[in-house]
Amino acid sequence: MAVGVRQPIRPLPPRAAERIAAGEVIERPASVVKELVENALDAGATSIRVEVRGGGLRLVRVVDDGCGIPADEIPLAFQRHATSKIRGVEDLAQLATLGFRGEALASIAAVAEVDLLTAADSSGLGTEATVRGGSIVACVPRPRQRGTTVTVRYLFQNVPARLKFVANARGELAAITAVVQRYALAYPEVRFTLLIEGRQTLRTSGRRLAATLPEVFGAAVAEALYALPPLTVGEAHLTGYLSARHVTRPNRGGIVLLVNRRWVEARALLQALEAAYRPLLPRGRHPIAVLSCALPPHAVDVNVHPAKTEVKLLHGAELAEALGRWVREALGRSAAQPAADLELGLSLLTREGTLRYALSPPAARRVAETPPSPPGRERRPAAGERGERGESSLPPLRLVSQVQAALLLCEGPAGLYLIDQHRAHERVLYERLRARHGPAAATEIEPVVLELRPADAARLASRLSQLAALGFQCEWFGGRSFLVRAAPTLPGAAAGLAPALADVLADVAAEEDDWQDRLLISIACHSALRRGVALTWEAMKALLAELDTVAAPAVCPHGSPLILHLSEPFLARQFRWR
Ligand code: ADP
Ligand code: MG
After folding, report:
1. What local confidence, expressed as pLDDT, does residue 373 receive?
2. pTM for the predicted model, two decimal places
3. Coil, helix or strand for 110?
4. 194 phi and psi, to 5 degrees?
């Protein structure tokens, strides 16, 4: 059934009720908010107001202007497995609504005091039902414009066990806020208001997503979000916004994945997104993203989890791949720039020695980053392909000199560029390692003995064949000891890896996830040219030429900037030329 075209509420046939994923719907106050907001959206509301007190345990109230519930159907609304949204099993494959289980109101009424005020027509008169212990104890006419108000009080007071599992009020408020934010982003055309302890903490204007982003994330963050060019795989379409490299979060709370406007934990997409950002962001930081995937209803299975947050997606893997490629290609290109408002400390040499005047504290030097140029719609080549296709990653640069035995000073069309030689080489080696197909060449080394903690030893032992493919010849003696006999050969790399081998492999053994990528980063880091090494002109030219072929020439694999761009306007301002 389509949203807004309301059918009467009916009990599901037993066969359908059995097929619905079983499990507890109402685990915490945030689940109450989620279910009530979903009901309001299914009712076609254009305005939804959420009110919360006492971390949601004392009060949750959701007010909407949707289609309302006819008075005679109110008892059915509180009956388990009775719904207006599907009629039978067949409809599960064609779901167009957020709800379909017919369980939320019944589950909430079982663990809280519920008052429902609803009107299904424009007569100005509605019905108020008082529900206690899951039963309707009073039903009286009351004035109400079309729409529904559900008030939930004293949640879990009759279930002390569940009350214990509810985190502190602050954690709960964060979860509730996240629920409302996600739906505000999923339904930008709906006006949302969130009131916490009587204070308005979120308000959206009900227009377009571009307008909702600053309302949810704040103007500064919204400015650093870039529109993803629409990605299409088969019948699946992915659109959305992703953060630039300098805007990060310490957790995944800023990542919102929507499938057919339902917030989900689409693991494949999430992992692809995180993997693509990882080499661009400092360790432990996460991006902000609002990604919306549209699919025909038959291509999504939402009935795999009671809270409906896990879904199975058709084309999930291909979408994840396309998304990852876009992030790597689009966000790894922009050079770091000193912040526009930065004033460099100036030094003047006088007869008395060096006289410093800082126009603003030089200690406060911040390095901001230029936004990536909005990526085009065409598919960009993946890491490693670029070189073969002869495309440039960098602006045309004229090498001027090496400075401080650490930086290449270059001149480009838009100012001066300082390139960190170690990080540049690290990036080049890393991308080459990633793009390599087939087993790596290995060089025999003076054997190195490795002693690991038992858990780490077991982990390393299970990875020996993959390590061999990467060029590490490593033998296990059982127990905690390993012998390393060969390490990967890297043409053009310094011999820095061998001495660090024990540390590198110990890290691999300690790493749970992503160990292969981390290993490549580690190999690149140890093998790369150091700072403090004087380079010949040819070596510098070669490094620049190689950097020009990589996909993300502006950040090292650890996520730190490797190019600093002193733009013409920046220099003009600093020198007060104009
Ligand atoms: P479901 O949403 O899975 O159908 P619920 O228990 O959440 O189950 O709601 C039961 C029924 O009550 C819904 O099918 C719908 O017809 C009606 N309903 C609940 N909330 C609202 C609302 N805010 N506006 C209109 N109808 C509602
Ligand atoms: Mg519902």
Report:
1. 36
2. 0.68
3. helix
4. -120, 125
